[in-house]
Write a structure and sequence with these properties.
334 residues, alpha/beta, Aminopeptidase, 2 domains, 7-stranded mixed beta sheet, two-stranded antiparallel ribbon, 10 helices, 20% strand
């Protein structure tokens, strides 16, 4: 599928873009899924920039699998357009392929889910998240009680990361902890990602529409991002497998639970080795932080009383620790 999608660049408005769109519609219909092309006009999300009003005609691909007793909708989303400078094998051919493979696995296994499943392959993501914005603005397709599993890439390999979630996130993170084979996330990363807009995805259009979103992406080998080397030869099969395994597990989990239950709080979470995701109430982390502060203060007092440390050295050590964290983060990022 990735080879078929990423034969050459297919930005919105080109004949190659239309070829990819028609191929994907045919592939979904071959899987026995009711599929249509939803035309519309997308607008650059105002939550990102208010000084620019970008608009374009879009053609989203929407396919539906009805649930047996639906309480909401599970959206499997990815964008099918590419930048003009590259064929988009990773960004976002792998995401599209993962979505289609999840659907194929559901159909082949005869899995009947309680909730509706909607495949949403958005258009014009690369020109400003326009397809996702048009879909949300139309108010169609079970936006109430909707959970989105979004697929993205900012490179050509590495672990698939849950780098952003909507808030509150308790039921979303609990589902990831429970079923995702490769959770690869922590609450600090998702908080920092949500606070910046330097690299964005369709998340920025879905969130204002009231949808709950899990935003998955990988970012290894970023030298292949948005250029001619983002081709099928530079797709990491292990990364692609991770994305597909997570997607299939999550669509089954959300497809079978009551989506009317609202998230009541945010959670603190971090990953241990062997794919173990630890999820804790926020107050537990605050209590541990307070206990650590008290322990450090007590130790400092005893050292100073024993004449083994001065206030200058104690505060110097604290400053060193505070400065080391952003320096180390910057070095790793560089």
């Amino acid at each position: 599928m990735v080879r078929e999608i990423a034969q050459r660049p297919h930005p919105v408005g080109t004949a190659e873009h239309d070829r990819v769109r028609d191929h994907l519609v045919g592939a979904l219909r071959e899987l026995g899924v009711d599929t249509e092309i939803q035309q519309g006009v997308g607008r650059y999300p105002g939550s990102l920039r208010r000084d620019v009003v970008g608009m374009a005609r879009v053609a989203n691909i929407v396919a539906r699998i009805p649930g047996t007793d639906s309480t909401g909708t599970v959206f499997l989303t990815a964008h099918y357009d590419s930048v003009a400078s590259g064929p988009g094998a990773n960004d976002d051919g792998v995401g599209v392929a993962a979505v289609l493979e999840a659907v194929r696995a559901l159909r082949a296994g005869g899995t009947a889910l309680r909730n509706d499943v909607v495949v949403l392959l958005t258009d014009a993501e690369e020109t400003g998240l326009l397809g996702a914005e048009a879909f949300v603005a139309s108010g169609k397709d079970g936006r109430a009680n909707g959970v989105v599993v979004n697929h993205e890439a900012r490179g050509a390999g590495g672990p698939v990361l849950l780098w952003r979630t909507t808030h509150p996130d308790s039921s979303l993170v609990d589902a990831v902890r429970k079923v995702a084979p490769y959770p690869n996330t922590d609450s600090l990363t998702t908080t920092l990602a949500g606070a910046q807009t330097g690299s964005n995805t369709d998340f920025a259009s879905f969130e204002p529409g009231g949808l709950r979103v899990l935003d998955w992406a990988y970012a290894g080998r970023s030298a292949y991002y948005h250029n001619i080397f983002d081709d099928p030869a530079h797709v990491d099969l292990a990364t692609m497998q991770q994305m597909g395994d997570n997607s299939l597990a999550l669509v089954k989990e959300f497809g079978g639970k009551d989506l009317r239950v609202e998230d009541d709080a945010d959670r603190s979470f971090f990953q241990l080795p062997f794919g173990l995701l630890v999820v804790l109430p926020f107050w537990v982390i605050m209590a541990l932080a307070a206990a650590t502060g008290i322990a450090v203060a007590g130790l400092s007092w005893r050292l100073r009383r024993a004449g083994e440390a001065s206030l200058r050295k104690i505060f110097g050590s604290a400053a060193t620790a505070l400065v080391a964290a952003p320096l180390a983060t910057g070095a790793v990022y560089g």
